[in-house]
Amino acid sequence: MNEATIVTANRLTWAGIVPFLGSAILGAIGVWQDQLAHAFLIYSAVILSFLGGIHWGLVMAGRLENPQGSLIICMFPSLAAWGAVAFLPVLWAIAALGFIYLIWLRYDIRRVNEKWYEQIRQPVTFVVAGSHFLWFITLATELRVG
Predict the structure, then answer these.
(1) For the whole model, what pTM was predicted?
(2) pLDDT for 7-17, tens place per residue?
(3) What residues contact residue 145 under an 8 Å CB cut-off, 6+ apart?
(4) CA angle at residue 106 from 105 to 111, to 5 degrees?
(5) 128 Cβ neighbours under 8 A, 6+ residues apart
(6) What SS3 string covers the chain?
(7) Alpha carbon 101 to chain centroid distance?
């Protein structure tokens, strides 16, 4: 990728954390907590699906070894996110999604052979996982106090 495209990808990636951080901060101070927790879960699941989809694109471009295996494995984020959102209580779904981000990060940076991608992916994933942690603490506290 050329430098201008990398800069654009970086800016869009950082912009993509606004819904994570914004909803987590507003939820932590008690603003629209129920609605934002629901929106957070949906956005988190959508982004996990996107991260798995990156591998589809790499397979289509012929840039991953073992393409059939890669296609099967890259379904993990979307299916795990769907399962968490569909079948777990909100508190545990948030914890599960945060954990999935960290698991997928480890796999992702080993498979995507782009230095710029690793440099952006790690800090953004830690911010995203942190927003899941903030939501978890917020909701756990509400359950305990409420």
Answers:
(1) 0.94
(2) 999 999 999 99
(3) none
(4) 90
(5) 17, 20, 44, 47, 98, 101
(6) CCHHHHHHHHHHHHHCCHHHHHHHHHHHCCCCHHHHHHHHHHHHHHHHHHHHHHHHHHHHCCCCCCHHHHHHHCCHHHHHHHHHHHHCCHHHHHHHHHHHHHHHHHHHHHHCCCHHHHHHHHHHHHHHHHHHHHHHHHHHHHHHHC
(7) 5
Boundaries of every domain in the chain:
17-145
How confident is the prediction for the chain on average, in pLDDT? 96
Q: What confidence tier does 116 reach under pLDDT thresholds 50, 70, 90?
A: very high
Q: How far is CA 46 from the centre of its chain?
A: 8
% of the chain residues with pLDDT over 70: 99
Task: State the pLDDT at residue 142.
Answer: 85
pLDDT in tens, 36-58: 999 999 999 999 999 999 999 99
